[in-house]
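Q: Entry one of two.
A:
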Amino acid sequence: MTSCATCELPLVLEIESHGDDHVDSPMRGGASTTVAHMVPDDVQMSCGCHFHWQCLLSAYQILQCPSCASNISSISTTGDQQILCTLHNEGGLQTDLDILPLLTEEIYLKAYPEERRARAFLEFCREGDVEAIIGLLKKATGDSDSDDEDEEEEDEEDGDEDEEGLKLTPAQILLYQDPTGTSHSGLHIAVLAGQIEVIYLLLLLGAPHPGRFLPTDVVVAADRLGAVQLCDRLGVTIDIRSLKDAEGKLALDYFEMAGLDGRLGYIEPEILEPQEVLTNTARMRLWQ
């Protein structure tokens, strides 16, 4: 049987599932049980080496196989670098899967665990998950509506319980820009993904005097979700619309370049016009 090149154990993972085991008892009740079973956990690299996913993350070296040191990168048809593998896990078998983005993300978060929450924020902006964005920012301010113990355990597993000095402030999360390539902010991402509700939310939280340009019904809906109360607590002093990406483009530039005024018919380009273009000095003040 093929084994993991790192730990030399079989390429399976034990997972637990909860179910109702109905057994005879004086009350004829069903007892909740935890059942453990094995699922595949096999990442086969182009060099032929196999790894558990977590073993690969722990041992991965940039563009090299952790076991045989072969170059495992290739160039895609679009000219981008990629790392293709065959992945066999609980979800099934996937061939020619590019895992470079996942590996890059995990390596970055190992080096900068304090940014895990901010990177989740960017993903929520891409997915259009308004409630998750509000919940994340509330939690960052210390105002969480949930005291669920599972949530606290999840934070500890994700490295969210870092020293206080390493945590990003709510304002830093809101204005966070992806440093791994594009430098896109949440607003850039929301515009490119056509997420209208997220665009409105980010303008409400991160633009000066949002009441001047946001529809009343949007503000009312945001208030019901607790977003309006967040505005004062975030302490944002820089217009989110003024953030520029690695190419020097504003979110407004992508809105106009891609003709998104047709797709995002409810949004006028003018509301994405920054009040003040962000200077390097202002950007440095944000992170001090």
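Q: Entry two of two.
A:
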Amino acid sequence: MTELSFAKSFLSTLDSRPVKLQSDYVADPKTFEPKGPYTLPRMPHPMRRPTTTPTAPGSAPSFRISLKSLRNPPLDLTLSAQTPQTSILELKQAVAEHLGLKGTEKIRLLYAKKPCADSKSVKDVVGDGVSEGKEGPEFSVMVMGGLPGASGEGKEAEGENSDAQMEDAPVTAEGSSGVKVLKSEEFWENLKGFLLQRVRSQRVAEETLVMFREAWLEKGSSLK
């Protein structure tokens, strides 16, 4: 048999068979030759699992928090890797540690000119507007009474002499002064914030502010 005749007979045999198996095709178990499972060879060096820890879904973002004060003592502190669950008390403790204070009783934190309670978190004060990759909120710091010994012992005597000289020297005020300050709404808003820090009660602070303002309108409006 020549190669050409063999090829023709082989192709004719293939044409008689279906190109694809039918959907209901079932192999005959009697004629089916079972084959053993194929096992891949082992690698010379086993693959290592990734060591990076995936971020848990719903985890809180981290951001930086700025704590600044322009008064005594001057302060510009930045806390990195903070979360929205960070409490105001923890921020005060960081400020106390930075300034060398023993406690947080004299430290006040303000956000948007409003005092922040120790029991609240950053999320309670700022809200959900802070996300990862953005600059965090900025809090204003007030140390009631200033920092003890911040001016140094050498400046105490100088301060006493300057106080004696200022009694005879004329006082030059910048901006609004006198009765004009008392007539501005900004003065009463600042006074309200101060009272709220001291008494720590919204109701008592508002009642005291109303009493002060009514007394000023009744007796102090005649001042010039």
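A: Comment on entry two: Strands lie at 63-69, 75-82, 107-111, 114-115, 138-143. Confidence is low (pLDDT under 50) at residues 152-173.
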